[in-house]
Design a protein that fits this description.
single chain; 251 residues; alpha/beta; Metallo-beta-lactamase, Chain A; 6-stranded mixed β-sheet; globular; binds zinc ion
Length: 251
């Protein structure tokens, strides 16, 4: 879906139901930036198809907003095409962690026969752990040819979450800082990190974007943005007050 002159969103890529995951595309005259690569190689192929259809001659580059596998799972596909992968240098996932990701995916399969048949292997076909190989942190920018975008720090969901802002078109790709209509995932954090998340929401409010593309859920336009910011704020304030994330078995 086109969200502004040069920005697009690939929504609804597969993940553990009811979650789907989004990717972003910003196309300049010479380069096309892909923001997050989906949870698996099949998702990455979909993103690649759209990204190359918009501007077939452009050089592609990838940026990862966060370390969770639903945002970096397609990295291997892009790397196999010789595409550079940018991201926070703290994104350093290992095979053991990916094993447990696949395990969790398998546990979410409700049909016992499908679970026994290890259908998670179909989802994660040709998908492995590939971390970004080029550092990109807040303050860095990408010149895509007539389109300049910048990295913004949006810690909270994880300590190293980052987003991409296109100031001229006022479009923010915020990853999981806001997840439209979903209950935000606070499980990797604690009250201290959740306070940082509140500050990231303040930062988004101050930026006053016209469009926000989240890591999960629908794109937000205009007044909807503050409604969603306030909804996430409410969840965070309650979690800080009680010391507990709204989800998760450890709470
Ligand atoms: Zn996510």
């Amino acid at each position: 879906m086109k969200v502004s002159e040069s920005c697009y969103m690939v929504s609804g890529l597969g993940f553990i139901p009811p979650w789907v995951v989004n990717a972003g595309i910003i196309a300049g005259r010479e380069k096309t930036l892909i923001i997050d690569t989906g949870a698996n190689t099949l998702g990455a192929q979909t993103i690649f198809g759209y990204a190359t259809a918009f501007k077939p001659d452009n050089q592609l580059i990838v940026f990862n907003c966060e370390p969770h596998f639903d945002h970096i799972g397609g990295n291997g596909f892009f790397k196999s095409k010789g595409i550079e992968l940018y991201g926070h240098p703290g994104i350093q996932r290992v095979e053991d962690e990916f094993y447990w990701e696949k395990y969790e995916f398998n546990m979410a399969i409700t049909d016992p026969h499908r679970k026994e048949a290890k259908e998670e292997l179909a989802f994660f076909l040709e998908t492995g752990v590939v971390n970004p190989d080029q550092p990109a942190v807040a303050g860095d920018s990408f010149d895509l040819g007539g389109v300049e975008v910048e990295i913004v720090a949006l810690p909270g969901h994880t300590p190293i979450n980052q987003g991409v802002y296109h100031p001229a078109e006022k479009v923010l790709f915020c990853a999981d800082c806001i997840v439209t209509d979903y209950l935000p995932n606070l499980e990797v954090g604690d009250p201290e990190l959740w306070q940082t998340w509140l500050q990231s929401l303040d930062k988004i409010e101050a930026l006053a974007p016209a469009v926000v593309v989240p890591g999960h859920g629908r794109a937000m336009f205009g007044d909807e943005i503050n409604v969603e910011i306030n909804r996430v704020r409410e969840v965070l304030n309650k979690a800080i007050e009680t010391g507990k994330a709204p989800t998760g078995i450890n709470n």
